[in-house]
Every structure is written in structure tokens, then in C-alpha cells.
Design a protein that fits this description.
The structure is a single chain. It contains 15 helices and 7 strands. By secondary structure, the protein is of the alpha/beta class. β2, α4 and β3 form a beta-alpha-beta unit. It is globular. The chain binds S-adenosylmethionine (SAM).
């Protein structure tokens, strides 16, 4: 396998042309790639735009290593930071220089999903881990199942996994862990099967896995806190692009972009506006963009992608 084939196998970047189109105005400035992954989007920017500089960030040490190797030819225009994208916004140089563009391609990479030992995707007999930082991370999915109280577990399954039997599953998990702690995906399958009275289907397991992954990695609060900080770090006319893969993430992005573009964010029902808000910019597209049918055919993992972009006022 050549170096280039290896890099592509890491993760096939999604909606590359749409990302480049949205970030075109940033082609000679500094762009934050907050979710570097295998470096596919970053490589597309660095190779297409010889004057741009990229700050590439990922919380996963394996992604950082893979991207560093892949992007070696562009090392003079690239800074790589191993941390969460919200933490990268504390960087003094980033704040001093400002950003002309930023990209968040949320969720997990194909490499993370395909690595059995990391336990991101549902397959039998795998550890319940799911930490994007790997061993350097905090609590695992097994810890959540073994330590979270029943009511909170039910909320996690319902809100983050849209699981109709959330309460039943939370009750079953808390009963079972008293006898033997959860360690592998088989333990969770067995608990879910007991609630359903049959073997859970892969899509049902995938939803429960998604719920656990969101909590393990604190994905929603990290996104909510990072978005306004990225907006503030953008220079005039700078563009923020976010690709999300489920409705919980997309709702945060959609609401943020709407509020920042609005001249009033007062609660509904106030007789007169009391917020005096000035729009800070505007969305680039009226509706979110989706991958083409051709892209979904070639890369089925792109099918749930939703791209939104927002431009700061000049
Ligand atoms: C969908 S992949 C990105 C793929 C990348 N755009 C490419 O072209 O290869 C998502 C990546 O974002 C990273 N990630 C997710 N949330 C993050 C966060 N809050 N901070 C930093 N990295 C994050 C994951 O570790 C993963 O490597």
C-alpha cells in the first residue's frame, strides 16, 4: 500500500468540493481545521490554495500522527495541535492572527469506527470504550453503563439515542450491573435483548452506541461552547463551515447560525424588542447542503452529512 492509499483508507473526506467552495474566500488566510482526522480536507485546502495556512486540530492522537505524516509536504504552512477544538481556541497565536475560515467535520472517522479495540461501532465481543482521546481520555462507555444512575441513563438513551425503550433499558442495565459489571458490547446486547424479547437489530444497537459516544466525549457541550468562540476568532468576512451527522449536532449549529444572523433574539411574546442585537453575519446557504447521490454511492458513510456555513459580516 502506498502512503497516499494509506491516507485515503484512514478516512474518505466528505463533501470536499462543497467545503472548498464555502471556504474559497479564505484561500490566502489562516484556516482552522478543528477535526483534522486523516487530514483529507486539510490536504485539499493546502494543495489547492498555495497561500493558505492551516491549523489542524484533533483530540485523537492516532489521527494527529496520521495527518502529520500525510501533510508532511505542507509542513511549512501547517500547525498541528493534539487537543479538542474548543481548547484550541485558547491558543494565543490563533487569537492574535484571527481566522479567515474554520471547518468542523464532526463525529468519528472511518479509522475510529473500524478499529475494534476502540469500540466505536457496534460489533460483537468488543470493549465498550469509545474515547476519542484513546487511553489518554477519561471515562469509557463501560464506566457510563456501570456508574450512571438509572434516571440519567434513561435520559441518555432517550435524548441522544432516540430510544423508545430508554427507561426499560436503563432499568435492565442497572439490575444487571449489580451482578456483573458491563465490559463488552455483548453485555449490552444481552441487556437490550432482555428488554426487547429478541436480539436487537444492528440499527437499534447503533442508536444506543451513538448515545453513549456522545456522553463519553461530551460532544454536544463541547460543540455549543466552541461555536461562539470560533465566530469571535473569525476575521471580517471569515467563514465557518460545519458538517454534522445527526440531528442533535445539527440543531446546535442551525440555532447558533440563526441567532447570530438575526437582529432580535428576544424570547417570543415580548411586545417590543429588548435585545438590540445587530446581525453579526449571515448563513451562506438557505438550506443545509447534502452530499450528491454520486458521493453517497461511492462513500455510503457520507449519507447523513449536513453542511452548514456562516459568513461573518465584513
Ligand atoms: C469525521 S472525522 C474528520 C475527518 C477529516 N475531515 C478528514 O478529512 O479526514 C472527525 C474527527 O474529528 C475528531 N474530533 C471529534 N470531535 C472533536 C473535538 N471536539 N475536538 C477535536 N477533534 C475532534 C475525531 O477524533 C475525528 O478524528
Amino acid at each position: 500500500m502506498t502512503e497516499v492509499e494509506g491516507a485515503e483508507a484512514y478516512h474518505e473526506p466528505v463533501m470536499v468540493e462543497e467545503v472548498l467552495e464555502a471556504l474559497e474566500g479564505a484561500n490566502s488566510g489562516t484556516i482552522l481545521d478543528g477535526t483534522l482526522g486523516g487530514g483529507g480536507h486539510a490536504e485539499a485546502m493546502l494543495s489547492r490554495w498555495p497561500d493558505c495556512r492551516v491549523i489542524g486540530v484533533d483530540r485523537d492522537p492516532e489521527a494527529v500522527n496520521a495527518a502529520r505524516k500525510r501533510l508532511q509536504p505542507f509542513a511549512d504552512r501547517l500547525r498541528v495541535l493534539e487537543m479538542r477544538f474548543d481548547q484550541a481556541l485558547d491558543d494565543a497565536q490563533l487569537n492574535q492572527d484571527g481566522l479567515q475560515g474554520a471547518l468542523l467535520d464532526l463525529g468519528v472517522s472511518s479509522r475510529q469506527l473500524d478499529a475494534d479495540r476502540r469500540g466505536f461501532a457496534f460489533r460483537r465481543g468488543l470493549p465498550l470504550d469509545m474515547r476519542m482521546e484513546g487511553d489518554a481520555g477519561g471515562i469509557t462507555a463501560a464506566d457510563i453503563l456501570n456508574q450512571t444512575n438509572e434516571q440519567e441513563l434513561a435520559r441518555v438513551f432517550r435524548e441522544y439515542g432516540e430510544e423508545p425503550r430508554a427507561r426499560g433499558l436503563a432499568g435492565e442495565v442497572t439490575r444487571r450491573r449489580g451482578k456483573s459489571p458491563f465490559g463488552s458490547s455483548d453485555d449490552l446486547v444481552a441487556a437490550f435483548a432482555a428488554v426487547l424479547g429478541r436480539t436487537p437489530r444492528p440499527n437499534e444497537m447503533a442508536r444506543v452506541f451513538q448515545a453513549l459516544r456522545i456522553v463519553v466525549n461530551q460532544e454536544l457541550p463541547v460543540l455549543s461552547q466552541a461555536l461562539p468562540r470560533i465566530r469571535d476568532a473569525l476575521r471580517p468576512s471569515g467563514v465557518l463551515v460545519v458538517i454534522s451527522y445527526h440531528s442533535l449536532e445539527d440543531r446546535i449549529v442551525k440555532t447558533s447560525f440563526r441567532d447570530w444572523s438575526s437582529d432580535c433574539v428576544c424570547p417570543p411574546g415580548l411586545p417590543v424588542c429588548a435585545c438590540d442585537q445587530v446581525p453579526q453575519g449571515e448563513p451562506l446557504h438557505r438550506k443545509p447542503r447534502r452530499p450528491s447521490e454520486k458521493e453517497v454511492r461511492m462513500n455510503p458513510r457520507s449519507r447523513s452529512a449536513l453542511l452548514r456555513a456562516w459568513r461573518k459580516a465584513a
